[in-house]
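REVIEWER CHECKLIST
Item 1: Sequence provided? yes
Item 2: Single chain? yes
Item 3: Sequence as submitted:
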Amino acid sequence: MRMDTRVNINFVNADNAAEIAQLAVCLTNEIIERTGTQHFDVDLPQTTVLCKRFLEEQRYRVLATWHGDKIIGFIALCESYALYTEGCFGIIQEFYVLPEYRRRKTGEALLRQAKHYARTQAWKRLELCTPPVEEFQNTVDFYLKQGFEITGGYKMKLPL
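Item 4: Structure as written out by the authors:
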């Protein structure tokens, strides 16, 4: 399927914290449902407060995808540093698209924008962790198709 032409992608600010927090809770709940394990104990009000603070302090950059005036997905990025990466790199902390918008190239478009942003920050690569592989093999396959490499366990990278 092709991406709906009415979808657009932009960075959000603290005004969008409640919407991003709600989607982050959807992400964690989906992981819990699929795995049958309570990996997270996410509280929506607390998540909203944290998201707002992270966005205000610019510790957390969030690209969101809209369909009309509704946020339908987001990718959250932050900067980190390590000797093994030879400097700064980006971490995809959360990445979620509402189920009804998946397989429409929405996630690919978000990731493409995240890669572009990462390059503007001179990050050497992007890293992320996936949920347990068995229950999320489609997720792992998506990242592999986008150029990520498995680096050990569930950690993956994308050289930039």
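Item 5: Key structural point noted by reviewer: The helical segments are 17-35, 44-56, 106-120, 137-145.
Item 6: Recommendation: ____
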